[in-house]
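WARN no homologs supplied; continuing
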Amino acid sequence: MKRYYLFFMIMQPLFAVSSFSDNVDLQEVYNAGLSVVSITTVNGEVPTYEVIYPPEGCLGLSITNATKVPARMTITRNGNVLYDSGEYVEGKSGLTMKVRGNTSAIQKKTPYKLKLQKKADLLNRGDKCKDKNWLLINDEYFRTMVGLKVNELVGLQWTPAYEYVNFVFNGQYRGLYLLIESVDRNTDCRLNVSKTGYIFEYDAYWWKESKRIYSQLYYCMQYTYKYPDSDDVTNEQHAYLKSVVNQFEQSLKDGDYDNYIDVNSFATWMIGRDILGCKDSAGSNIFLTKYDNTPDTKIMMGNMWDLDSSMKKEKEGHWDGAHNQWFWGYLFGSTNKRFVTAYKRRWNELKPTLFNQMDAYLTHFVNSEECTALDKSLVLDRKVAGKNKNTVAEVLGSYKQWFSDRKTWLDGQISKLKGYKLGDVNCDDHVNETDLKGIVDYIMGNTPEGTFDVNNADVNQDKDVNAADVVALINLL
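OK structure emitted
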């Protein structure tokens, strides 16, 4: 059944970037110890936007008609110029900036998208990390920093790089920001998809996009493009991705999803989110990739994003907001237990080391020069827009406790999930030499009488039972 949407989008009057009083001495900003991003727009022009509301039955609050403003940007640290875009000359130097985001766009500390006219690595890591697209976003309580470390440790395919900076706009201090890579295709240092591939998002804010793919699963979600850009997508490309998406969604209902998705990447993404316990499910920026336009590649999960609702304490533990929503509601509930098995296996692989690594990371950060500079910058940030009244050590100390508690809670919950019991081919609830003999007999064509579970025999989960599973089971024993 087709659904028809009525787009009654109420637009507010045009907004400009919030004005700030000159109550911070810029010399203090430059002396705080962090890099300073200074942007000066042509003729002092200010980016504007309009607030837009969703159609009935859909979610969110967003912006439209965000203006692109030409500008020059410098990045300095301790008196040294690390980057200078030069004056704006279209296609040659300078950059454009515009307000980005959805509900975050109307906050005091406005987030921005920066588009350089010439590729550069604003984080000074080397030539291979050059790109035109960068973001300045708010990370008030360092949840993005901590969440991206989890993203790295769980092993998702890419972790955005970033740096905390103080931001000066047209000569006024705007506060403490995160200068961070945007989610884009870049085979050297961002999401690695071919020129015929796709990066797309399962998006609650689809209603503001000109080109999208309808979801069979949920009324309020559709798919939108990150690569190619929606304005550049051809009819042929759109038809191809639509067919891929439709097959994927149908497979979630039919239970043969492992023919269409990289199960491990879906399990890893959900493990990472469950460790962080994000509250937001619809606005969680669910990025997916397909490496190319051939049947040889499957849909993979991209990186985690939009982590500002993570690590918030409750009296009782809770799953991540997406755990029983969207794709994962189908995956956890499917009679095909490959996803649950992959999820449990990934948890058991990560559990012995990840939480110790996070504790060590947070301890090291608190004792770093960057932390000292952040504390100095927080004092300045509070004068303009900051809400965080704590020191970095106090905030990160609360996250240490979160991870300690989270490990215990998750371990108890995940142990209750029923997946395949890999290696237990005779289903006697034990994995031992008898199961090893059972796999060998199966491979030799001498399947033993009685119970023999082929799914449990596929120890390495490659959808085939062969000598590699014998080796995998020996390692288990």
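Confidence is low (pLDDT under 50) at residues 1-10.
OK
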